[in-house]
Design a protein that fits this description.
- The protein is of the alpha/beta class and 188 residues long.
- 26% of the residues lie in helices and 18% in strands.
- A hairpin with a 4-residue loop joins strand 14 and strand 15.
- Helix 2 runs antiparallel to helix 3.
């Protein structure tokens, strides 16, 4: 897994909700190697701002903030191909390394998760084509390789590594390495 050298230490166990928005955005910036033009930074930062908009009670403030957020999140989706719905509970120090064809529709994505391009995390479709609402959970310290798919009501356990182009349709235990289509745990 890639290093988080120079970033907020993992010993800081506060949740994203416990940090101020400026602390969280500064951490997102450091996580993305202090690159202001990093598409991953914009996707994660826009998501965190959207979560904070949900806390604004005054309709006169909330409406323009919602509109601005919609424009920026749509731009991140259209320009860089990173779709990260506000309904996904996002942890801290999530690093989206590359852009393009990245769909992150999870119930939650934990802290210190590394995500590469062409990653799909989301629901599966039933035999009749209807979308099933069960979403994956990505726990802390997970590394998702390029082209991975994590689909349905599965949990990818803490510290797991999903190798490039693997398809995960079953729960992954903590610390496991998964490879293949369908994904199989590599004995370690």
């Amino acid at each position: 897994m890639a290093s988080n050298a120079g970033h907020t230490p993992k010993s800081d166990r506060r949740s994203a909700d416990e940090l101020s928005l400026l602390e969280l955005l500064a951490e997102d910036f450091r996580t993305h190697e202090s690159e202001f033009t990093s598409p991953g930074f914009w996707a994660v930062a826009t998501h965190h701002v959207g979560e904070r908009i949900d806390r604004v009670d005054a309709p006169v403030l909330r409406a323009p903030l919602e509109a601005l957020h919609k424009v920026v999140s749509t731009a991140v989706d259209w320009v860089w191909g990173i779709h990260l719905p506000r309904t996904t509970k996002l942890g801290r120090r999530v690093h989206i390394w590359h852009f393009g064809s990245t769909m992150l529709n999870a119930r939650s994505i934990g802290n210190d998760v590394h995500i590469r391009h062409d990653t799909t995390v989301g629901p599966v479709r039933g035999a009749d084509g209807t979308k099933l609402d069960a979403l994956p959970v990505i726990e802390d310290d997970v590394d998702l390789g390029s082209g991975t798919c994590v689909m349905g009501s599965v949990t990818v356990g803490r510290g797991a590594v999903i190798c490039a182009n693997s398809v995960v349709l079953e729960p992954v235990p903590p610390g496991a390495t998964v490879f293949g289509v369908p994904g199989r745990i590599i004995p370690g």
